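Hi R.,

Here's the chain you asked about this morning:
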Amino acid sequence: MLKFQLTDLQVFCLAARKASFAAAAMELGMSPAYVSKRIAVLERALGVTLFHRAARRVTVTDDGERVYASAQQIFEGVDHMGEAVAGARSEPRGVLRVTTSFRLGRKHIGPILSMLAQRYPTLDITLDAVDRRVDLISENIDLDVRIGSVDEPHLVAHRIADSTRVLCAAPSYLERRGIPASIAELSHHDCLVLRDRNQAFGVWHLSSPSGIQKVKVTGRLSSNNSEIVRGWGNDGHGILLQARWDVSEDLKAGRLRAVLPDCSQPGQIWAASTVRLSHSAKVCVCVQFLQEQLARGPFALKQ
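And the predicted structure, written out as tokens:
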């Protein structure tokens, strides 16, 4: 029986994530021919075709998807074994590249990473604030901190903090236009639409006592920046759907008032990486520090 090596699985998984033998070879410092050979060995050993091959790009077959999932379990077992032997001897060092949205970055992630840099002087941290979905592989990003789930199958998801999005509006708007009595009535109001990273533009999915409801909303003002949308809400331009931590101070001060308080939208904060925590000390300490500080540190999310 033809055998394969653990490194063959690692080569396969890297090629699957990058959708390219050449790109995998470049990262590994090997030739594309060697990568192709090792994957061919793996295919013969397993008796399946792992990739649909094209001139410049490869895509994983259904069998390949199953092998990829099994490989992750194998690597996780190896990681746990390594952790048991190595303990905590690995010191985080090098460049840590992080991305997040503007307001979350300015109010929370940036200050927390400042504290992380003080704790680990061997880390060089880069933080980019962008209100768009990023490609971690092509943009060479270690960690993307986002509001919303990680749905890319080739990325590893780390749950950072729990939160929800809530509906609210300025008292001046509600006095002028009235308070909606149901989710359906939102379609007749001016809504301030955030062109979010992972939300359908102009469509709000809301959890209510009667279940999930969808409503198409419109308004004269929209932006891809949550801070701008929040400011428009304070100015009385309409109803906004915003993370609770983002509007908590405005609600407390009365600049905004809750609308349909029994309705909300999940707004958990996740971090996406291309590696598991046990593969990278710098990603591991960053994720754990963010989880700790966003829950109970000086820059924790206000709910």
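Confidence is low (pLDDT under 50) at residues 83-89.

Let me know if you need anything else.
M.
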